[in-house]
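Researcher: We're teaching a course module on how sequence relates to structure. For the next exercise, students receive a sequence and then see the predicted structure as tokens, so they can try to spot secondary structure elements on their own. Here is the exercise chain.
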Amino acid sequence: MSIQKIIGILLIVLGGLGLAYGGFTYTKETHKAEIGPVQLAVNEKEHVNVPVWAGVSGLALGILLLLTGKKGGSV
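Model: And here is the predicted structure for the students to work with:
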């Protein structure tokens, strides 16, 4: 399998996930304090939105890469 096909499939999967979920959430540790045996930490949830145009572009580019890939084999 060529690198172009792998990138095309990856773009299709990521574009589809971006359209299906609309974004992703991650947890970021912002403050941490250690006072003797007591440890305190503040975690904040961050949400990143994936624009619809980015998901559609990923799908379209992935399909384009798969369709324009070189045909393996010789005559």
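Model: If you want an answer key for the exercise: Residues 3-67 form one domain. DSSP finds two helices and two strands in the chain.
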